[in-house]
Amino acid sequence: MPRKEALKAALLSLILFAVFLGAWHIATLPKESTMAAAQDAEYAALMGKGAEAKGGFPPPAQVGKAFVAYLSEPFYDRGPNDKGIGIQLAHSLGRVGLGFLLAVLVAVPVGFTIGMSPLLFRALNPFIQVLKPISPLAWMPLALYTLKDSSVSGIFVIFICSIWPMLINTAFGVASVRREWLNVARTLEVRPLRKAFLVVLPAAAPTVVTGMRISMGIAWLVIVAAEMLVGGTGIGYFVWNEWNNLALPNVIFAITMIGVVGMALDLVFARLQKLVTYVD
Question: What's the predicted TM-score (pTM) here?
Answer without folding.
Answer: 0.82
